[in-house]
Structures are given as C-alpha cells and as structure tokens.
Amino acid sequence: MIAIVACAAFAGGCGDDTEPTGSITPNPNNTRPDAGTGADTTPEADGSDEDSSEDPDITAPDADGPDVDVPDEGPFCDTINLGVLGPNESIGTTFDFADASNEVQLSCAQGVVAKEIIVRFSVEQTSRIKISQVSSIQHGLNLQIGRGACGAPDEIACFNGGAQNIIAEAGVDYFLTLESAVGASTGQFQLKLDSEALECYPASSSTCDGDEVQRCETGFEIATYSCSLGCALDSCAGDTCENAIPMDPSGTMRLEGTLAGYRNNFNMRNRTECFDSGYALATDGPEILVALNGLTVGQTVRVDASEEIGDTNDNAVFITKGCASSTPECVAGADSATEKYEWLVTEAGDYTLIIDLISTSSPDFVYDITID
Ligand SMILES: [Ca+2]
Ligand SMILES: [Ca+2]
Ligand SMILES: [Ca+2]
Ligand SMILES: [Ca+2]
Predict the structure, then answer these.
(1) In this structure, are 278 and 172 located in the same domain?
(2) Both 186 and 315 in a single domain?
(3) pLDDT digits (tens, 9 = 90+) for 195-238
(4) Most CB atoms within 10 A, among 15, 21, 38, 289?
(5) Distance from the alpha carbon of residue 113 to the mean position of ligand 2, in angstroms
(6) What pTM, to 2 d.p., does this model score?
(7) How far, in whole angstroms, is CA 138 from its chain's centroid?
(8) Could you say which ligand is closest to the alpha carbon of residue 112?
(9) Among all ligands shown, which has an atom nearest to the Cα of 341?
(10) What is the CATH number of the domain that holds 191?
C-alpha cells in the first residue's frame, strides 16, 4: 500500500516538474535470466563428452554450520593418498580392483554392488582439476567426489563415467571413489589428474587496488576495472549496500564516470510494486547505490539521468527501505521516458536510492541528485 501511494508521487504528479512523464512500455517478451550467477554446479551425467573443458566446473557447496569433530576412521581415511598436486601438474596412477573391497555405496549408482577404489589428494594452490580415467574395463567407471574430513567427507558430485572437472581449493582434502558401473569390478584402470592453477577464487570475489577494483571473473581470471568514484570495501564506491555513496540530506551531488566496475546486484524484474506503472521491467544492468540518510517529511529527492546532462542510457530509479537483501522494499520507483525522477518524502527515515539500468548503449553514466 505504501509503495503504491509513494510510487504515484514518483510519477511526477505531485512535483513542480512540468515535463510530461513518458509512458512506460512493458516488454512482455522479456525472459532474460538473472545475470551474474556464474557457472552452475550441475554435473553432466553423460560421460560421452570427451572434451570436458567447456563443462561447468564443480565447486564446493557453501559450508553450513560449524565443523563437527568426526573421528578419523572409515573407508575414506584408510585410503590411497596421491599427495599434494602442485600448480599445473599431472599425475597418473594405475589401480587394480583385485586389491579393492566394497564398503561404499555411490549415490549415483544405487543398486550397484561393486568394489571401489578410493584415492585422496589435495592441491598446493586452488586449481581446476581434470579427472580422467583410462580403463581396460569394458563398461566404464562411476565416480563420486567428496571433500573435507576423511571421517565424513561432504559429497560434491557423482558421475556415471567420463572426464570431469572440479575446482579443488588449497588446504582441503578431496576423495575420489571409483567403482565399476555394473558391479563385479575386476581389472585395472589408470586414473589421471591434471591441475590448472586458477588466477583467482572464488568467482565474483573482488579487492581494491587504489581506485581500481580487481574482480575474479567466472572463468577464474582477474579483470581490473577503474572505479570512477573510488574503491572501498573491496568494490567500487556505490556498488554495494555496504559502500553506498552517502549523500547529505540536502544539497546536490553529481555522479559521473564509467559503469565498467559496477555489477548487477539488483534486478527489479517481476517487482511490479517497484514501478509506478505497475509494469515491472528487467533492470539487469549495473546499478549505483546512494544512501539517503536522515530524510524528513516534505523533502523532495530529484534524480536527473537524462541526455540533457549527458547520460544516454535508459535508467530506472528506485527508492527502497533497507538494502541488505537483493529484494529490498520499494517505496517508489519508475522508468521514466524523460529520465527525470522525483519523490516526495512522506515518512522520515533512512532510504537507499538505486539508480539502475534497463538498457545500456554507453559505458558511461552521469547522474545528478538533488534533495531540497
Ligand atoms: Ca561400492
Ligand atoms: Ca540492476
Ligand atoms: Ca539515463
Ligand atoms: Ca528510463
């Protein structure tokens, strides 16, 4: 209810701006997915893909909860240790199922009763590990991968054959459990591990280097972007809630520069309550956040993101309560054809101004913000 009332104000109806507010054209065909989620962790079950280099890397799930002490015993503790792989190192070892026993049931091979070979390894540097098997066994091997304490490793993937890539973090033990796909495991196979050290990890992590931000891209390579408004707290100023650009509760501020260092952390797609038009458009361009603290009733916040001041991109502008989540409560929001926005404060408090992007034709931005 609050959003609807305030959004009406944002449409320009209560301001002194005589410029007409353009109509908003909804795009019903917009099916773009959310950006920036990186490689997914769904393993390819089909082992026929010989060139696995384009498969998504398997990364560890987020750790949840404190570590629980587990005794160092069980089939994963009493196993073959391949040692520590250096960066860009390859090792190949031959194993024989004649030496194996059946103590583990693979999660991706329920019902298969088969002896397994378990090996463990770790890495000197966080690396992409290509796991391949050269088997003399006609029917191939299943592979389950775990990490953590040998007494109770966390399963991160299970595959029915084929070469696989995983990301192995330095300082963590990894366990590979291999067994025949059809039981009655006999014969020898060769297991080969190739490590490729990553430039950075995890993807999307970043750090400041002066007024530049160095970001770990989805390919685990470092990209450097200049931050037009400075860099702080590991990101360009205004890129995250934590380093939203503070603005005096009265006055004028111009924000100007290049969008390259900014990320798309907010997408108002499907957030009809965030648009005065009621038509929610995807805002999957990068946004700049401004902290509007200590606003009082009767003040007006104006945002100019128009071509008149040199901004050629199509913006949408939102006022939210709070910021920490990716779906903060909107109190106002619009995609105005004039690229000029205003909002009358009807409840004193701290707000976040999100200057977002519907579409981007220029790498640069110019925004003027006025509060009076
Ligand atoms: Ca088994
Ligand atoms: Ca966005
Ligand atoms: Ca604009
Ligand atoms: Ca617009």
Answers:
(1) no
(2) no
(3) 999 999 999 899 999 999 999 999 999 999 999 999 999 999 99
(4) 289
(5) 51
(6) 0.67
(7) 40
(8) 1
(9) 4
(10) 2.60.120.1050
